[in-house]
Design brief:
single chain; alpha/beta; Rossmann fold; five-stranded mixed β-sheet; 14 strands; 20% strand; globular
Length: 307
């Protein structure tokens, strides 16, 4: 079990040591996002911007126009919403290489409650022209996708979670932009997941296997550009699809998959995710249970679709 935010802090230092153009800008949350590792170990490459996300985005845009690669550290609820106009006008429209870390995404944010639970960030960022959208499954994939994101010419949003999660990828895993991965083969039903929901999706596949149901699990770490070919192929292999995400089903992974299949291969499907509601403060397991995101909920959706 490793926390994605710890991998984020370590990867920032690795990037700084590799690339003299990398700087870290923080919105007064470095001790939570673990960008404080940079403030301690590489203080000359760390800029504390305070609780002023709009200004932080403008500063990042200015740095990017000078050839630098700014990485922004904040919670997803702030970096997606508070500075959205600045992101749209001064970063996305000129297609600048500003990298955004949306930490504490989804419901599991350490009992911070609905004000700090961002469950629509994929929807917002998918709809932003020029934006690349990534949602790594574990700490290993966080590092791997950051190494790739740093070299991309335009803006990138990386969705990250707070708490330790199972590690599903080996240490030598290499991230490939725009590629979805089959992390479990199957023949009866396809489960498609993204981000930290993927380990729970694999647990759901284990539960189904104990009942004789063979589930293919497709992990989608790149929400944009989306690997439409892999989605179509996975749907064709089993003939039915369940998507699952710690995110609203409106415009998230489920919506993206439905768009692809609706145009290219109409397939019976069910979306498992947050159903157009805000969250609340509670322990992680209680939130997963109430909002229908446990492995058991994913497995039940699969059973219902197969029945």
């Amino acid at each position: 079990m490793l926390a994605q935010r710890d991998a984020f802090g370590d990867a920032l230092i690795e990037l700084i040591d590799r690339d003299p153009c990398v700087y870290v800008l923080d919105g007064d949350l470095a001790n939570s996002t673990k960008a404080d590792k940079v403030s301690r170990e590489r203080p000359d490459r760390f800029l504390e911007m305070g609780i002023a996300e709009q200004n932080m985005m403008g500063v990042a845009a200015g740095m990017a126009t000078c050839g630098l690669v700014p990485w922004l550290s904040s919670f997803a609820c702030f970096i997606v919403n508070r500075d959205l106009d600045q992101l749209r006008v001064v970063v996305a429209q000129p297609n600048l290489p500003v990298k955004l870390c949306g930490a504490y995404s989804g419901l599991l944010t350490g009992k911070t409650g609905k004000t700090h639970q961002e469950v629509a960030d994929i929807s917002v960022m998918r709809a932003m022209p020029n934006m690349t959208v990534l949602a790594p499954a574990d700490a290993v994939e966080v590092r791997a996708c950051m190494l790739v994101a740093n070299d991309l010419p335009g803006p990138v949003y990386v969705r990250m979670t707070r708490d330790p999660e199972p590690v599903i990828f080996p240490a030598d895993y290499e991230f490939e932009l725009g590629r979805a991965l089959v992390v479990r083969e199957g023949t009866d039903i396809t489960l498609i997941s993204t981000g930290a929901q993927t380990p729970r999706c694999l647990a759901a596949a284990d539960e189904l296997a104990s009942e004789g149901i063979s589930a293919l699990v497709l992990h989608v770490p790149t929400l944009k550009p989306l690997d439409a070919d892999a989605i179509v192929a996975a749907a064709a292999q089993t003939g039915c699809v369940v998507t699952t995400e710690d995110h609203t089903i409106v415009g998230g992974l489920g919506g993206a998959v439905a768009e692809v299949l609706g145009e290219r291969r109409p397939t019976p499907m069910q979306r498992v995710g947050i159903r157009d509601v805000f969250g609340e403060s509670a322990p992680n397991e209680d939130l997963l249970q109430k909002y229908g995101l446990t492995p058991g909920h994913v497995a039940q959706a699969a059973r219902a679709l197969l029945s």
